[in-house]
Amino acid sequence: SPVDPWMAIFKRGGKYLAGNDDARAGTPDSRIRFRVPETGAYDLVLRDLLRRGGSDFAYRIEIGPARQGITLGIPKYARKGQTRQVVAIPRGGRMATLITVTRENVKGAVRIVSDPLPNGVTLRAPKIPANVNQIPVVFEATSGTPLGGTLLPLTGHLEGSKKSISGPLRHRVELAYGPPNNAVYTSHTVNRLAVGIVKPHPILLDLVAPKAPLSRSGAMNLKLRIERRDGFQGKVICSLLFRPPGVGAGTVTFEPKQTERTLRINANGKAALGQWPLV
To answer: 145 near 121, Cβ under 8 Å?
Structure first.
């Protein structure tokens, strides 16, 4: 259907209560999560966003009780394609990626579990705190881990809930997309993360752990070192994959042959307290 729906709920008589255009990136479909304030009559309005219409502008509306659940994912770094959607772990090294959680009508921290892991691979996955929706996880492979690939299941478990709530990874793979409007014509959703063991990288990065905490309305210099291997003398750009709430940081560039730099981070007056991973 060519319809690009816009949907809204009104109190009978005309008062606007809630509306939505695109429920999520990559799809024009609308979705409203709505708590009914009182018993009464309500109007659901649907129209094309550009006020178009025709015999082929088909649509379907579904109404049901709100679902409780969680879903894991990897953030999109490009509108289409699989850029940084896979994990390539160098032998004897590490690879980090962000894991996001979508909470549907639930609150609380989420624990990430992966079982089983390939031989020689470990996963460091801190809990996703209740006040954030993503956290960096780090995969590490020993120097003797065989080269190869696998599809890895990831599951999130909600903590602090009276009933057991868990959810899988949901990853959308665009199989065919293009003109007009760079539209997706074929896609498939999977519940596995593509993980590969690859040859060692030509650099190792080391962050010197600070000896004191970062205080609110304060700043800190982090010392970064890189070890160059196999004759690599090129430029290296470093930035934080994840920033704790209220924390800011810039980007550090190692010029050719440089091995040590300083990254400055700062916290505003309302930065979230606690222990946070820096990757």
So the answer is: yes
